[in-house]
Specification:
The complex is a heterodimer of chains A (about 120) and B (about 120). Chain A is about 0% helix and about 50% strand. Chain A is mainly beta and about 120 residues long. In chain B, the strands form two sheets. In chain B, strands 2, 4, 5, 6, 9, 10 and 11 form a seven-stranded mixed sheet that branches. Chain B has a four-stranded antiparallel sheet with strand order 1-3-8-7, with no helix packed on it. The chains are: A mainly beta (about 120), B mainly beta (about 120).
Chain lengths: ~120, ~120
């Protein structure tokens, strides 16, 4: 069965510093997609970045990059130059294969707190 | 370009009552998903539509839950005979592989249900 594990319940970082949020996954599929979402206190899930299993290069989107290590089954999110507005819950997710179309399986999330 | 909208944003109901939530996806998106999120957890997939066809509904939590997307546009999620355990955030998401090869899902703000 597919599974996402986020082992850091909470992370603390100072403004302008970089932070890495960990994500490991478990799947027997060869083709899969990995996503990161941000959920501020307002509740809306905001798509940040995507990595396909066959992508040879790590994905980047502005200050977000995904450190994809396929052999270790990890897909860590790196946020560079943290900002106060980055304080939120962050979820790693995997696209599920099978009848559920492209439904996502989520981890339990990591709360990021950015201080000035 | 409007995002995914959900109505109502909050619903308080008494145990045993029926509730219905509405989701309006991004207009060009043909795929629509419902998720449930309880406190401290990541979203949990419930059901999925491609156009008007409900392609996966086995994850609906019980036979008290049902969803429709009659014309392939908006969708409704109904919970009959609500129980206190149904209290959660109900999230809707939409996507389209035609507009994005990664088929990333865009989420609405959610409907927070409280059953008293």
């Amino acid at each position: 069965a597919q599974k996402i594990t986020q082992t850091q319940p909470g992370m603390f970082v100072q403004e302008k510093e970089a932070v890495t949020l960990d994500c490991t996954y478990d799947t027997s599929d060869q083709s899969y997609g990995l996503f990161w979402y941000k959920q501020p206190s307002s509740g809306e899930m905001i798509f940040l970045i995507y990595q396909g299993s066959y992508d040879e290069q790590n994905a980047t989107e502005g200050r977000y990059s995904l450190n994809f290590q396929k052999a270790r089954k990890s897909a860590n999110l790196v946020i560079s130059a943290s900002q106060l507005g980055d304080s939120a819950m962050y979820f790693c997710a995997m696209r599920e294969q099978g009848q559920a179309g492209t439904a996502l399986i989520f981890g339990k999330g990591t709360t990021l707190s950015v201080s000035s | 370009d409007t995002g995914v909208s959900q109505d109502p944003r909050h619903k308080i109901t008494k145990r045993g009552q029926n509730v219905t939530f509405r989701c309006d996806p991004i207009s060009e998106h043909n795929r629509l998903y419902w998720y449930r999120q309880t406190l401290g957890q990541g979203p949990e997939f419930l059901t999925y539509f491609q156009n008007e066809a409900q392609l996966e509904k086995s994850r609906l939590l019980s036979d008290r839950f049902s969803a429709e997307r009659p014309k392939g546009s908006f969708s409704t999620l109904e919970i009959q005979r609500t129980e206190q355990g149904d209290s959660a955030m109900y999230l809707c998401a939409s996507s389209s592989q035609r507009t994005s090869g990664n088929d990333e899902q865009y989420f609405g703000p959610g409907t927070r249900l409280t059953v008293t």
